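User: quick one, fold this
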Amino acid sequence: MMSESGDGITARQLWFTAPRQVELREQRLHVGRDQLLVRSLCSAVSAGTEMLVYRGQVPPDMALDSSLSSLGGDSSYPFQYGYACVGIVEAVGADADAGWLDRLVFSFQPHATHFLANPGEVTVLPSGIYEENAVFLPNMDTAISLIHDGAPLLGEHVVVLGQGVVGLLLSSLLARYPLGSLNVVDGIERRRAQATHIGVRSVHGCAQDGIAALRQHLQHDAKGADLVFEITGSPQALNTAIELSGFSSRIVVGSWYGVKSAPVALGGEAHRNRLHFVTSQVSSIAPALSGRWDKSRRHDSAWQMIREINPQQLITHRVPLEEAASLYAMLDQDSEEVLQAVFIYD
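Assistant:
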């Protein structure tokens, strides 16, 4: 997997070379004077955003993530991607603190056997949190950001559309709130079963009769949902959010659709109900909260929730980097067997 000599280390990196095409490339890494060399232990694969990258559905003129130096480039092929890597520091530059050696760290880095980072680009894993839980930091951070943007109130009737990993983490957090009801919707049975396992009592499929029954239930209890989170990754789901909402309800859009779009029914009830749409994005702090919250504080909360929820239980597939092409092909078919996949490294 690697070789080491006086002129550096050979890392194997995953590259996206064209829509639905990936390959492994070797790259010599030379540790700079103020850099850390990290050997990867595992990295999480996003079945949402990362599949937009794999399918070529990212706007070509948009930075992959303008808030991360590792993903600051655009989506012109070839490029690297990935943002949830845990590894161990194996070497430090001449000007870096030797105390970094052998520390377990998290970093927002593309999938690779090794990477170089400045100390400010890595986070030491807190005590009691190990690698397979730590890769959930970005998704838990996203779930907390969604809650901050939605601001659920005591007694409210809340709906979560989508029970992928972010949806399940969000539901895990919302299940701790004194809500009037928590209702989740997903078309995949395994995800619905997991939602039930984490304590959600009102779990529904995507069929229209099920949505109609949920709408009737919400109308009876509260004249519609007070708050709806849309995190399916499918823009068509916005119409379901509208259908389930009541007067002056809030709809928090946490999905990133890339270049996908769909007709949205903004006439009729959507117009008369004075709905509030909020787009939520984890890369920033909502202005209303930025006086007291920053990313560091939110990460502290995410680590605490990771301790309590143990998201490692959502990992269903552990795959060597060499099998990346097969994994992505399976995810591309919307495999119902996958909750969370991670790459593992020797």
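User: anything notable?
Assistant: Residues 1-5 have pLDDT under 50 and may be disordered.
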